[in-house]
Amino acid sequence: MLRCKIIPYTLRFKAPVKTSKGAFAKKPTWYVVVYDESRKDLAGVGECGFLPRVSPEDLSDIAEYLRNLDGKDPEECLNSLEINSYPSVK
């Protein structure tokens, strides 16, 4: 059975990244690992990128939503109606 593993991580830039909303030295991100419970050697990895003040979502909402996906079936996650409320997660 396929499962999702959510791994939070903070990317620290070598130089500040400039956007129309300001400059950033770091960025919260989450790695989404999809793996088969019967084949731990086989997995796929994706990233949920969130840029404060640029992404439309609130950081605390995204963090909570992703915590709730941890351990779930990826098909269930993709079919979730809530995912449409979080463009950074898509």
Describe this structure in words.
By secondary structure, this protein is α+β, with helices and mostly antiparallel strands. The protein has one domain. It has helices spanning 59-69, 74-78, and strands at 2-19, 22-36, 39-49. It has a three-stranded antiparallel β-sheet with strand order 1-2-3. It starts with a strand and ends in a 12-residue tail after the last helix. The model has no long low-confidence stretch (mean pLDDT 83).
Write out key terms for the chains shown:
single chain; 90 residues; alpha+beta; 3 strands; globular
Short description:
The protein is an alpha+beta fold and 90 residues long. It has one domain (2-12, 21-85).
SSE inventory with pairings:
Elements: E1 2-19, E2 22-36, E3 39-49, H1 59-69, H2 74-78
Antiparallel strand pairs: 1-2, 2-3
Give the amount of beta strand, in percent.
over 45%
Task: State the domain count.
Answer: 1
How far is the first residue's CA from the last residue's CA?
Answer: 22 Å
Biggest sheet overview:
3 strands, antiparallel
Strand order of the largest sheet: 1-2-3
Mean of all residue-level pLDDT scores: 83
What does the overall shape look like? Answer: globular
Radius of gyration: 14 Å
The portion of residues assigned to helices is 10-25%
Please work out how many helical segments DSSP would assign: 2
Please report the total strand number as a whole number: 3
Provide the low-confidence segments as ranges: none
